[in-house]
Structure formats: structure tokens, C-alpha cells
């Protein structure tokens, strides 16, 4: 048993003559790999014949050696990482039998991952019995204390995932999943707000766990960050669904209205339309949205305006021909050079609608 760490140390020295190898090794990789796998098999045998604290300590020493080997090897990182994972699994079984001091075990598991970012992933479920409540509490306390001070990656920034941050993130994700702790999951997610989709993730977790007010707050934060782009529509969908679930349809309409004013979009118009089209609220809201486009007068606003006209015509949502013609008159003022082609497009799509064509002719179109 005592000779196993020396065997591992010798086998981890890259031999002369190997591509990329370091001087000093006497064996080629196949022989050294055979020696390493033999150590792994021997540890599993000792788990049956000689379990106890001494074996746990021995395995921890060898896992650390292998983790160091993964970090320094240039040609055999994958094989060494897989072997380290197998030896760590043996360690988990040894701990389940021996029940080492849980706080010490928690510290070792955490240090292994933080000091060796390329170390094998630690599955907390494999250590559930050995860690016990005290060990898990220690593991969580230290992990959170290290993770909380990490800077938040702000909207539009590039993620700064150095090896230390990546190792901590991996620890926290596993801890949140194992404990099923929503606050831990939110802590992890809220450290990266580089895009609107990250805001959406946080809001979705809050919504799914019955924390509606917080979810809507994160939607508002996300919408301010994205400025109507990216995940904006998905954020709005979540807010609308949540307001409707809460029996607050007016708030759902208001979300669509404010988002439309911030960045006009046909989808937002249609969302608002679907919410109130069969109520007395729709005509004034529709007029307000269209008036905003006229006041804006920009290329995007005009394009949205044109698409709204076509949608309303296709759905026969506008029964008053005079109102539609008035919209066309406003479009002509906004886009005089392109209006003739657009009017021809409208006429060709509605060639069978004599009432519309007659009204257009009467109004000089």
C-alpha cells in the first residue's frame, strides 16, 4: 500500500524519446499507463481487503497526484483525467464505508477542485452519507463565501472565465443542483448578465418557483438592459403570461405598450392586439400605437407601420375603410418616394376588394 504513491509519481514523469516528453523518465507511455491503471485496480482491491482511514488518506494522495498530472501533461491529459475520475469514485466508496471526519472531508473535496481546476468533477451525491449535514454545511459555507465576491459580468461584456472562476462556478452549479436550493441557483445565474437571455434565465427560475414579484423585477431589469433587442420578446412573453396568471390583464397590456414605445415591433403590436382586440380598449390603444409610429417617422417605425397596415387588412381587423385610407395618407407623407410601389403592392394583394379599391380611388390613391 505505501509504495503506490511512488509508483504513481514515477509513472507521471514523461519519458525521453516521447513526443513532447520531458527528460528523466525511463518508461514509455504504454508501460507507464499500465502501471497507473494497475494502481487504480489495486486501490479497488484494498477497498475490499483493507478499508479504513489509512486507505482514504492514500487515495486522496493519489487523486491529488493524478490531478497534478492532468495539469502538467501535454499529451495524455484525457487519459489521466479519466483515471483520476475512476480513483475519485473509489475514494467516494471508501468514505462511505469509513465515514471520515465530515468537515475535513468537505475541505479536501473543495480544495481538490479549487486548487486543480482540471480535477475530476466531484459528485456530492456520491459523498452524501460521508459528508453528513455538518460536512455539507461546511462545503456550502466555504463555496458561497468564495463565490459571492466574484464580479458580475455585466450586459454586453465578455465573460471573464479564468481557471479559478471556472472551478468555482463548477462547484456552485453542482452544489445548487445537489441541494435543490433555488437561492444558490439564482446566485450562480446572476453572476453572468452579459445578455438578455441570462436575465430571462433568472426570471424563469423565479417564476417557476412561485416568486412572481421577483421574476417581474428581473424582466424589467432585462428589458432595460437589452433595449428591445435580443431576448426582449421572450422577456415580454414571460411578463405577459405572469400578469395574466395573476389576474392583471391591464399590466400585461402596459408591458406591451411600453415595450412598443421603446422599440416599435410588429410582434409587440400583435401581442397587444391579441390581449384587447375584442374590447373597447383596442381602438384607442391602436390609435396610440400608430400615432407613435407617425411621430417617430424613422425607418424602423415606418417599416412597422407598413406591416401593421398589411396585417390589419389581411385579418379584416379594420372595418372602417376611411381609417385605413387615413393610415395610407400618413404613410405617403412619411415615405413619399417609396409610397407608389407600396400602394401598388396593396392594390395587387386586394384586387378583389372593390370597396377598398373604390375608396382608395375616391381619396386620390
UniProtKB/TrEMBL annotation:
Per the record, which residues fall in region Disordered?
A: 1-28
Q: Which domain of life is it from?
A: Bacteria
Biased composition annotated in UniProt, kind: Gly residues: 18-27
Q: Could you tell me what this protein is called?
A: Tetratricopeptide repeat-containing protein
Per the UniProt record, the source organism is Lentzea cavernae
Q: What is the lineage of its organism?
A: Bacteria, Bacillati, Actinomycetota, Actinomycetes, Pseudonocardiales
Amino acid at each position: 500500500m505505501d509504495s503506490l504513491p511512488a509508483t504513481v509519481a514515477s509513472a507521471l514523469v514523461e519519458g525521453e524519446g516521447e513526443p513532447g516528453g520531458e527528460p528523466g523518465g525511463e518508461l514509455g507511455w504504454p508501460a507507464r499507463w499500465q502501471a497507473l491503471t494497475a494502481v487504480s485496480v489495486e486501490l479497488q482491491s484494498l477497498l475490499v481487503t483493507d478499508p479504513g482511514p489509512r486507505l482514504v488518506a492514500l487515495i486522496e494522495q493519489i487523486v491529488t497526484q493524478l490531478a497534478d498530472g492532468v495539469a502538467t501533461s501535454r499529451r495524455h491529459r484525457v487519459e489521466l483525467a479519466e483515471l483520476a475520475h475512476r480513483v475519485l469514485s473509489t475514494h467516494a466508496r471508501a468514505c462511505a464505508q469509513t465515514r471520515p471526519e465530515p468537515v475535513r472531508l468537505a475541505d479536501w473535496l473543495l480544495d481538490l477542485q479549487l486548487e486543480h481546476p482540471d480535477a475530476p468533477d466531484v459528485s456530492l451525491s456520491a459523498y452524501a452519507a460521508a459528508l453528513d449535514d455538518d460536512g455539507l454545511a461546511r462545503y456550502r459555507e466555504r463555496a458561497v463565501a468564495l463565490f459571492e465576491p466574484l464580479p458580475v459580468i455585466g450586459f454586453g461584456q465578455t465573460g471573464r472565465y479564468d481557471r479559478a472562476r471556472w472551478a468555482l462556478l463548477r462547484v456552485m452549479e453542482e452544489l445548487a443542483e445537489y441541494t435543490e436550493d433555488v437561492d444558490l441557483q439564482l446566485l450562480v445565474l446572476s453572476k453572468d448578465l452579459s445578455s438578455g437571455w441570462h436575465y430571462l434565465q433568472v426570471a424563469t427560475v423565479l417564476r417557476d418557483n412561485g416568486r412572481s414579484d421577483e421574476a417581474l423585477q428581473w424582466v424589467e431589469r432585462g428589458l432595460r438592459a437589452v433595449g428591445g433587442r435580443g431576448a426582449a420578446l421572450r422577456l415580454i412573453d414571460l411578463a405577459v403570461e405572469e400578469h395574466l396568471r395573476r389576474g392583471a390583464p391591464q399590466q400585461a397590456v402596459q408591458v406591451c405598450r411600453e415595450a412598443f414605445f421603446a422599440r416599435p415591433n410588429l410582434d409587440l403590436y400583435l401581442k397587444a392586439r391579441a390581449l384587447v382586440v375584442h374590447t373597447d380598449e383596442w381602438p384607442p390603444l391602436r390609435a396610440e400605437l400608430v400615432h407613435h409610429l407617425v411621430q417617430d417617422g424613422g425607418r424602423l417605425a415606418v417599416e412597422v407601420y407598413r406591416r401593421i397596415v398589411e396585417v390589419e387588412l389581411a385579418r379584416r381587423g379594420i372595418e372602417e375603410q376611411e381609417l385605413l385610407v387615413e393610415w395610407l395618407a400618413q404613410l405617403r407623407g412619411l415615405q413619399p418616394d417609396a409610397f407608389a410601389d407600396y400602394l401598388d403592392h396593396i392594390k395587387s394583394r386586394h384586387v378583389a376588394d372593390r370597396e377598398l379599391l373604390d375608396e382608395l380611388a375616391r381619396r386620390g390613391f
